[in-house]
Specification:
Elements: E1 7-8, E2 11-12, H1 14-141
Antiparallel strand pairs: 1-2
């Protein structure tokens, strides 16, 4: 803001100079107030930025902890599933072995029964033949 002053006998017009100085002071004060306000806004924004940066750091730590926890949970679940599968395989093997042993015993029992029936039939047949022989001898004696 450049101002030209009119001249009077002792120099520049005092009122014009004073008015100009007052305008300069007002403009300077206004600019100073704006600068102060801008500085306050900048400080406030810096604090807010610091707050968000702190939150970001906290969130990043929380994410890392969550990822680590997830990895640990996955690893534990995998290990537990391996144990469960191994137990199931062992139990299945036991059940199969028990069933095979039971089937073998049943088969042995069945074979023993077949032999006993065969022996019984042979002895019964021999008894009947002896009885028939005695009947024939009895007929011969009569």
């Amino acid at each position: 803001m450049v101002n030209k002053f009119s001249t009077s006998v002792p120099g520049y017009n005092r009122n014009e100079v004073n008015n100009f100085v007052n305008e300069v002071v007002k403009e300077y004060e206004s600019m100073l107030a704006k600068l102060k306000s801008s500085c306050e806004i900048i400080d406030s924004l810096k604090k807010e930025l610091k707050h968000y940066q702190d939150n970001e750091a906290s969130l990043n730590r929380a994410i890392l902890i969550a990822e680590e926890s997830t990895s640990n949970i996955k690893r534990a679940a995998y290990e537990e599933s391996k144990v469960i599968i191994d137990d199931a395989k062992r139990n299945a093997t036991k059940v199969i072995n028990n069933a095979l042993q039971k089937a073998e015993r049943i088969e042995e029992d069945a074979e023993n029964l077949r032999r006993k029936v065969s022996n019984y039939k042979r002895r019964f047949k021999a008894l009947i033949e002896n009885q028939l022989d005695e009947l024939e001898e009895f007929d011969d004696r009569i």
